[in-house]
């Protein structure tokens, strides 16, 4: 819709038309009178004709002015009606808003004041229109509002701002958009504003900020508490690990002396009764060692320090080893102990010690809880992939069986299916828990299938990598023990034994001289370093904890000697933790023997490193 012309513009056009018409009519009358006078030369007739023409002119002029004025009046009335409709529409829209909408002239007097503004201020539009802010607000607030109007007019801009003013609800916060108001020609004629009550929103935001700050403070406090708790737990774990390491060392050292002495005594002439007593002594010693190993293994697993070895595996050899270690126990109870052929063609890699430990836990329990029949070991392939294989190891027995409701707690630490079995059969209740954790470390799981009186099948799975390396040939000829091989090939080889405990030193010396090795002994690390500097040893056995200088420092000093860089140094220690093994490796040791040790294991370790060519 085109914009209607302004009132002053219309009246200017009307006056202009009337003046033009009057000038034209006057000229016409004058010219006409002169023409009549020339024709008639009668003044009276001229007067009469002029009078008639005058009235006719007035009549025509009046008619014409009436028509013109009526036309412009209609246009003005239509424009005025349109403006009123527009103003009523604007007023309706403004009054429909919950925001305060208003407009002011250049002096700050209100031109528009909607219902929401009236509700906020308690003033009707009739009371406000034509007045400024002093008629609504306290003087200090009115002064600020009028100053804002002046700034917006001077800058000819629009601003978004927050304003605090007194309303019927009390002190209210408004989020306002205010700016310069323009007419149709772009001239500034005042200001406009739209204000929204945001008091509640501000209160909520402030409350949220307060809660957020409180939450941040709480989180910070809890974080500090957790950090302190973590530090305390780590300190406790370190203390626990240190205690267990010391306990292990203090128990293993005399236990090594007990088992070593039993081994030496067995070589002498003994009566049948003495051999029975010695068997019980060795059995008690190995049982104590199993308990210590189980507690340490569980502690290492729970502390996350349980590391798996990556070495070539021979599954059939693993099964044969378990059978060999348990055959005497099975025979003593008149039980059969057999292995179903594994038929695993692929070469695999994994931790043979832990796999053997898991199988021993199952098989030992099977023999313990079986009175008639036998125990069978079985291995089968569940998955055979390109890079790995999932194997299932199972131990089946014909024993007492286990109730279904008791099977769930079997694999919990320190628990058995029936607490009365501890008295009858013995055991700590750790073996199955450790086996399950070993299986989980190997990417598998563990479980049991059993019914009371129908025997049990304990099983675990392990995911083992395929071994792409060539098979390593054994250093032992078939049927020949490590001790015999040492005696045949390395008799006279000179060995340095660094051991501070006199009994263990004596036992180890006897074991070494029994296979023809020459032994020099040192009672501490400093003595070992001095002997290594003076003599050329084929191999050094080094204890970790010794007075004056420990085995780790002694190893480092020996490695700095001209002939010490390639000399095999094997830790022989009661420190059985993985961290101890890592410390020994970091110090420069080649391998690790844990006390108490089996003589054949020591012989195998010596044979392994004496066979390695030295540069």
UniProtKB/TrEMBL annotation:
<dbReference type="InterPro" id="IPR000014">
    <property type="entry name" value="PAS"/>
</dbReference>
<dbReference type="Pfam" id="PF00072">
    <property type="entry name" value="Response_reg"/>
</dbReference>
<feature type="domain" description="PAS">
    <location>
        <begin position="86"/>
        <end position="156"/>
    </location>
</feature>
<keyword id="KW-0067">ATP-binding</keyword>
<dbReference type="InterPro" id="IPR003594">
    <property type="entry name" value="HATPase_dom"/>
</dbReference>
<feature type="domain" description="Histidine kinase">
    <location>
        <begin position="246"/>
        <end position="466"/>
    </location>
</feature>
<feature type="coiled-coil region">
    <location>
        <begin position="201"/>
        <end position="246"/>
    </location>
</feature>
<feature type="modified residue" description="4-aspartylphosphate">
    <location>
        <position position="543"/>
    </location>
</feature>
<feature type="transmembrane region" description="Helical">
    <location>
        <begin position="12"/>
        <end position="31"/>
    </location>
</feature>
<dbReference type="Pfam" id="PF00512">
    <property type="entry name" value="HisKA"/>
</dbReference>
<feature type="transmembrane region" description="Helical">
    <location>
        <begin position="52"/>
        <end position="73"/>
    </location>
</feature>
<dbReference type="InterPro" id="IPR036097">
    <property type="entry name" value="HisK_dim/P_sf"/>
</dbReference>
<keyword id="KW-0812">Transmembrane</keyword>
<feature type="domain" description="PAC">
    <location>
        <begin position="156"/>
        <end position="210"/>
    </location>
</feature>
<keyword id="KW-0472">Membrane</keyword>
<dbReference type="InterPro" id="IPR035965">
    <property type="entry name" value="PAS-like_dom_sf"/>
</dbReference>
<dbReference type="InterPro" id="IPR013656">
    <property type="entry name" value="PAS_4"/>
</dbReference>
<feature type="domain" description="Response regulatory">
    <location>
        <begin position="494"/>
        <end position="610"/>
    </location>
</feature>
<dbReference type="InterPro" id="IPR036890">
    <property type="entry name" value="HATPase_C_sf"/>
</dbReference>
<dbReference type="InterPro" id="IPR003661">
    <property type="entry name" value="HisK_dim/P_dom"/>
</dbReference>
<dbReference type="GO" id="GO:0005524">
    <property type="term" value="F:ATP binding"/>
</dbReference>
<keyword id="KW-1133">Transmembrane helix</keyword>
<protein>
    <recommendedName>
        <fullName>histidine kinase</fullName>
        <ecNumber>2.7.13.3</ecNumber>
    </recommendedName>
</protein>
<dbReference type="Pfam" id="PF08448">
    <property type="entry name" value="PAS_4"/>
</dbReference>
<dbReference type="InterPro" id="IPR005467">
    <property type="entry name" value="His_kinase_dom"/>
</dbReference>
<dbReference type="InterPro" id="IPR001789">
    <property type="entry name" value="Sig_transdc_resp-reg_receiver"/>
</dbReference>
<dbReference type="InterPro" id="IPR000700">
    <property type="entry name" value="PAS-assoc_C"/>
</dbReference>
<keyword id="KW-0597">Phosphoprotein</keyword>
<dbReference type="InterPro" id="IPR004358">
    <property type="entry name" value="Sig_transdc_His_kin-like_C"/>
</dbReference>
<keyword id="KW-0175">Coiled coil</keyword>
<keyword id="KW-0547">Nucleotide-binding</keyword>
<keyword id="KW-0902">Two-component regulatory system</keyword>
<dbReference type="InterPro" id="IPR011006">
    <property type="entry name" value="CheY-like_superfamily"/>
</dbReference>
<dbReference type="Pfam" id="PF02518">
    <property type="entry name" value="HATPase_c"/>
</dbReference>
